[in-house]
Design a protein that fits this description.
By secondary structure, this protein is of the alpha/beta class. Helix content is about 40%, strand content about 15%.
């Protein structure tokens, strides 16, 4: 867990306050909150925790498959997408992994946990963090699996479906793990996904915890060909999705029209908030912004203040953002902010305006 970002509980302990007193702008969940009715539904289902959940979560997987328009034999439900990230190197017998960075640290952690060698193909700030597929292809020659986060965390870059699909097809000897945990935040995300690609060498990871703001339930899915799904099943323990998580999936699937509307409204809300945040910044070219397509934004700070210094100053005001210096491929000049409601976003813009002024 060392590679993860802001810890609201550790900060609250350090500041001597309650976690609820902290404005957490480090966590990439939907600022609009869970969809209307979801929490009340889960409260009504609390008595179901007195019995074991369905051992293989098959009903939840099947309902999600229908919701996503995918054949049920191509879907496996799990305890968050993290379960599949950490089991993938084992299930797929990976010996050499290539990671398209800078990106989420768990891909590297998972590979090292299972003894796989790790290589990186980093996109560059000078290229707006757009992946260089020639570089990726050259390095993929020495790898058996390739991890790509799309849209990427923390850069927010989305690789268009056609481009990524063509790349996967061009390298049939590589097995691609495509993490689409943030795809729901992207405009037209449903048409950019590779979930329906049905390629033998593509595994897609999906999380609905972030878009529906229920990360504590741990809900994720792996989507691939039936043969690859069987490989994952061989290493997934029974009862890997709790009763309330299974109930939440079924409830969401039953409310598809409302959930699609909620997703569209989220995208519109985030678009407005990003524009408002950018307009509220009164800084000059000392900041470099990478708005991206997801619920967060990567920011490069000026030379006179480091990510650690800025995060410490904001912490004193009980605001938590993500210090990105421990992302492989980034350094102490990068932070990531996750958008919340308008008041918090404008407050953060105000703090940026005040705290990153040049010395003297």
């Amino acid at each position: 867990m060392i590679g993860h970002g802001g810890n609201i509980y550790a900060m609250a302990k350090k500041l001597g306050c309650d976690p609820s007193d902290i404005i957490d702008m480090s966590s990439n969940v939907n600022p609009m909150g869970p969809p209307s009715g979801l929490i009340d539904f889960l409260k009504e289902k609390m008595d179901t925790v007195t019995a074991l959940p369905e051992a293989d979560s098959q009903r939840a997987a099947t309902r999600f498959a229908a919701y996503a328009g995918i054949a049920p034999e191509r879907v496996l439900a799990g305890n968050g997408s993290s379960q599949f990230i950490y089991s993938a190197p084992l299930c797929l017998k990976a010996k050499n992994a290539l990671i398209a960075g800078p990106t989420y640290s768990d891909y590297e952690d998972a590979c090292r946990l299972h003894g796989a060698n790790v290589m990186f193909a980093h996109s560059r700030a000078s290229e707006q963090f757009i992946p260089d597929f020639d570089r990726l292809s050259r390095k993929a020659e020495s790898a058996d699996i390739v991890f790509i986060c799309n849209p990427n965390n923390p850069t927010g870059v989305l690789i268009p479906r056609d481009r990524l699909l063509a790349f996967c097809k061009s390298r049939p000897n590589n097995l691609f793990i495509i993490d689409e945990s943030y795809m729901s935040f992207a405009d037209d995300g449903e048409n950019q996904s590779l979930a329906d690609a049905n390629l033998e060498n593509v595994v897609v990871l999906v999380s609905i915890s972030k878009i529906f703001k229920m990360p504590g339930l741990r809900v994720g899915f792996v989507i691939s060909t039936p043969g690859t799904i069987e490989k994952f099943k061989n290493h997934i323990p029974p009862w890997n999705m709790n009763t309330l998580a299974q109930a939440a999936v079924i409830h969401i699937a039953d409310q598809k029209e409302a959930m699609d509307r909620f997703t569209r409204n989220t995208r519109l809300f985030l678009s407005r908030q990003k524009k408002m945040f950018l307009n509220a910044l009164k800084t000059d070219a000392s900041l470099t912004l990478y708005p991206g397509v997801a619920s967060f934004m990567l920011i490069r700070l000026p030379l006179w203040i480091s990510a650690g210094e800025l995060c410490a100053k904001l912490a004193k005001e009980r605001i938590l953002i993500r210090n990105c210096e421990n992302f492989s491929g980034l350094d102490a000049s990068f932070v990531r902010i996750s958008f919340k409601e308008e008041t918090s976003n404008l407050m953060l813009a105000d703090r940026f305006n005040r705290l990153i002024q040049p010395p003297g």
